[in-house]
Predict the structure.
Amino acid sequence: MNNNIIVRFAPSPTGPLHIGGARTALFNWLFAKNQGGLSLLRIEDTDKARSKKEFEDQIIETLKWLEINPDEDPVKQSLNINKHVEVANNLLSKGFAYKCYCSYEELEKEKELSKKNNLPYVYSGKCRESNKTGSSFVVRFKSKKSGTTILNDLVQGKIEISNSTIEDFVILRSDNTPTYQLSASVDDHLMKISHVIRGDDHKINTFKQIQIFEAMNWEIPSYAHIPLIHSMEGKKLSKRDAATTVEDYKKIGILPESLRNYLLRLGWSYKDKEIFTLKESIELFNLEGIGKSPSKLDMDRVLSINETYIKNLNENTLFNYFELYVTNYKEKINDISLNKIKTNFSIFRNKAKTLEDIFNNAQFIFNYKKINFEKEINDSQKKLLNLFLEKIRPLQDHEFDKIKTIIEDILNEKKIKFKDFGQPVRIVLTGTKFAPSINEIIVSLGIEETKKRLSLYL
RNA sequence: GGUCCCUUCGUCUAUCGGUUAGGACAUGUGGUUUUCAUCCAUAAAAGAGGGGUUCGAUUCCCCUAGGGACCGCCA
């Protein structure tokens, strides 16, 4: 165990876990596992208005589903607020921060003015030197005004920024609560985080947080900013886009290992390898393999990878997934039908891309409806069905192997092709043209049910 | 608008100065098949543009163009 390597995934519980967050969590977790370090989960719930317990639970639950399990119990940032305030006051007394009495209206005016003049808005910092007092104030960090700061990002490489572009950011709100910049810095320090792996959208924040670290004389962690996941339109993924939350994928029957595998290969690669077991991904993952450009979500690829896992997973494991999926997202299947599905599971899984496909493929077992007879079946087909029924009437469930001969006899007798026989039988037995082979249908239904369904039409 | 980042087939990506620029998904075609699917084979498909450096650039540098992120008392 390498105790020097500690990473964290720090979502805010303001919505369900989305796909970008899941990937960040995965990369953090894989990095820690690969390095023999520690992977922690910190719930950033300092925004009281938007944070919800249900989302916190949802995020933890979803990570569990993906088998991205933190090495320690989740930490709630809100429980640490006293420490954050303490640091703010410390900064204040050391002269690294100051009280700002500017009113909301005052700042709005400044913003408007710079917008009008087409200038970038940066807080003027006028309260730094003024002796203004008042009842309401925020605490701002004294950002460096000159020089440049270099961030050696583990993914992006060297990033140099002019300090003057970083404003005196707020670290304590007027209600004396800490802002994100402060809380994140303090907690990263307290939790001894060695590597901060997060989305690219945090890059500017890093320059702010580094200054807090420097002021407090804390050791600065390493940073890795991973490119964002874009929608098909090439924009940052938003709630409006389709399939943005992990739940969206769960709902259509994507397996956790498939989603993990897909997410791993989205923005990271190892040679030509596409399919990674969990063990392999831990062994092979590294920050160097992360690309620099944002990548787009591709549902076709998700489905394709899922199909690979559906085809290759051990049958019991897959059936357990299926059962769980049905209880969570579909109407209950009665025990007899479920058992039929289980004993003939390979029939249904072989033509499925998702668990939902398996469910749909097996529908004819538990959700059989008599079809519009007149429309689909003509008289000669009806005679065929009758003949077939008569021939299989004496059969028992263990005599499936005789069906093949019976069908061959009928084909010879009537001098027809299999298609002419198969089509009506398939429709009558399943209610759809797209179903497994006749043999498989009969085996999965059982002889009695087959007879029953055939006689419905005679 | 300012700051920063990015740019190889439609998509995810390989290439760490010399390759017929490779793979996967999707797509087209053909074959297997008891419908549908699977499976197999095969095809088409890419270095944004312009300058350098170099014997040689997709690869290194610069410019242009395009795209993106950030610019909250949200995180």
